[in-house]
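INFO batch 0412 | record 1 of 1 | parsing
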Amino acid sequence: MAHFPKPAEGSWTEHFKIDTSPTSYEDSISPEHYEAEREAIFKKTWLNIGRVEQLPKGGSYFTKELSAAKTSVIVVRGKDNEIRSFHNICRHRGNKLVWNDFPREEVSGSCRQFTCKYHGWRYDLDGELTFVQQEGEFFDLDKQNFGLAPIRTEVWEGFVFINFDNDAAPLKEYLGAYAKGLDTYPFGKMTEVYKYRAEIGANWKLFIDAFMEFYHAPILHQKQAVDDESRKLREVGYEALSYGVDGPHALVSSWGGMAPPKDESMVKPIERLLRSGLFGLWDAPDVGPIPEAGLNPTRHKAWGEDSFLFFPNFMLLVWKPNWYLTYHYWPTSYNTHTFECSLYFVPPTNAYERLQHELAAVTFKEYALQDANTLEATQTMLESRAVTEFPLNDQEVALRHLHTTARAYVADHKAEKDQASA
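INFO prediction complete | emitting tokens
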């Protein structure tokens, strides 16, 4: 018997009209499919590449390496306060324009202009070419025609997105109802950031799978709770409060009984001391009004956290105790990707609050390592193709939706190409 109500159809999967038959993971082990995803997904959808706080003033910039889109990107705040993005390539001979010691490493900083290391060509913060070394040696060179190659850039609630497709729908339209529900969430007040980054030997979708279901949590993470509580969690299992689908995007709304716990004996001594843990601070800071429309869709009193997946690779987790975290999954091949996690808190006002943040951050890291630890083993065995179909339960509906959506993008893109070449 379900602990939380399900739709009238009897399951979330059937409610969203998603196929319930065993699932193939060929889309996660095929090099050919990955090449198709690069064109159909990562060059066609909005990609979150950072926050406005990374660009505090005119001239602030950072670079982003995007293997899946086969490019490097410069993101810069101009003197007019506008945030722009450009391909990180000099228009003279194709040298990477902005990098420091190692060309594959991402960098950040502040400058008045960008200067190519190779021949000294210079570009202003708007991307205009302003200086050419020995300009007279060139043949009818018009600098106005050789500015940096721009990339479409838009900002939602401080999150900076780019899209390589100039014909794509505007960002807010693409992000849909989930973003609209969070339009007034005080993201800008949570500027204390802890970041993790890891190279993972698994397809990018497999790690999203791990964070879009918590069916695994009572088993994989059982050592994180005290013994009695761990045993209870294994016996009960996991059910979400609700699931949601909005176009290519998905939502898992979950309970969060550990912040604060019903019984402090459920958690470890250091969590009792600092009143913090995986679920964040037990005592939520005052951040003003919270947009109720966009969170806790069932209005359940046990609600603790909503996980939004903005397709393809941006996850946003908003927690009841007024903090949030983000996950990004950047493919580097069909069976590798770079995982990034950032935890955002209201800046601490004293050392105790700082320690509360740090405990939440290191506890999360331990959980994430446990999740990541399974992925390379999963990838290896999926690639054996010894078994090709896998049954997923109703708590794994968001996985089915992700893989169905990704395959649909590839199929639609192929159909468009076939039609164009016919």
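INFO post-check: The radius of gyration is 23 Å.
INFO record closed
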